[in-house]
Amino acid sequence: MNPETKMKVKIRDVTLVISGVIGFICLAFACVGIVVTPDVVIPDSEPTTTIVPSSTMVFVPTQVSTPKPTETPIVVRTEARVTSVIDGDTIKVEINKAIYTVRYVGIDTPETVHPSKPVEWMGMEASEANKRLVEGQMVYLEKDVTETDQYGRLLRYVFLADGLFVNAELVRLGYAQVSTYPPNVRYQDLFLEMEREARENERGLWGPMLTATSVPSTPTPESTCDCSGNLYNCKDFSTHNQAQACYDYCAAQGYGDIHKLDRDNDGVACESLP
Predict the structure, then answer these.
(1) Which of 93, 97, 129, 198 is most open to solvent, judged by the fewest CB atoms within 10 Å of its CB?
(2) Is 132 a catalytic residue?
(3) Confidence of residue 40 (pLDDT cuts 50, 70, 90)
(4) Which residue segments constitute the domains of the chain, with CATH numbers given?
């Protein structure tokens, strides 16, 4: 082999070695994934935390049903004219030219015209108090749930034109006590509050009780009045009060003017009597 040929062989061998080294180096860097980059200067700053969700989360808003506002019941009041007062918790009224007996709902006053009971203590006072409040007045009647009682009387709360609540006022003054029965309990809490006030102030029923001798004796309607038929006329009574008591008693029992004592239908019996 001549010198020129030897030189070419050496150059070839060196080239192969260099190529192999370079290839090895490139292969090594590619395998370990090292990337050489220029130095980068990172300015001082607050560390930042980056949260990378592991999966995509989709939030579906839950449908919340908005409660409907409670409906306020519509209160209807009927205008009526009081034609007569039967006792502490019962009146007769005129509505559209028709006469109705109205029983105050939610309260009870002492008896004065009950068919099987004597006149009870404070009964006459309760009747007089009721007369002072409503006799001859325009009133406004409010129904609770029940329309009438077993005697056909309208069950109503009674208001005056100035807003005075008659049922509650009689309780507040001590002439009536609370007597509510479901479902007619709309004003039960108010009545109980009024009764508590009357008790604390010893008004009426809650005051000192009179002795029996101090209570005037009054004939009971059942001793002089029979509602089974048209049995009497005005000549059978000595006074207007006696005739009126019989008239009111039968009306309260649901018989109306069975004896025809009120000829002009104004709620007043035997007006010609003293």
Answers:
(1) 97
(2) no
(3) very low
(4) 77-216 (2.40.50.90), 219-274 (no CATH)
Query: So what's the pLDDT on residue 36?
Result: 44
Q: State yes or no: pLDDT of 54 exceeds 50.
A: no
Distances (CA, A) of 22 to 28, 35, 38, 222: 10, 16, 21, 135
* Catalytically annotated residue among 46, 128, 153, 195: 153
Marked catalytic residue, from 103, 156, 172, 186: 103
Q: Which residues of 52-89 are buried (b: 16+ CB within 10 A; e: fewer)?
A: eeeeeeeeeeeeeeeeeeeeeeeeeeeebebbbbbbbb
> Per-residue pLDDT for 42 more than 80?
no
Tell me which of 111, 125, 169, 195 is the catalytic residue: 111
Model pTM score? 0.54
Q: Is 103 a catalytic residue?
A: yes
Sign of torsion over alpha carbons 206, 209, 215, 217? positive
Q: Is 239 within 8 Å of 273 (Cβ atoms)?
A: yes
Query: In the chain, pLDDT over 90 holds for what percent of residues?
Result: 43
> C-alpha distances in angstroms, 103 versus 56, 119, 132, 209, 237?
72, 18, 17, 26, 27
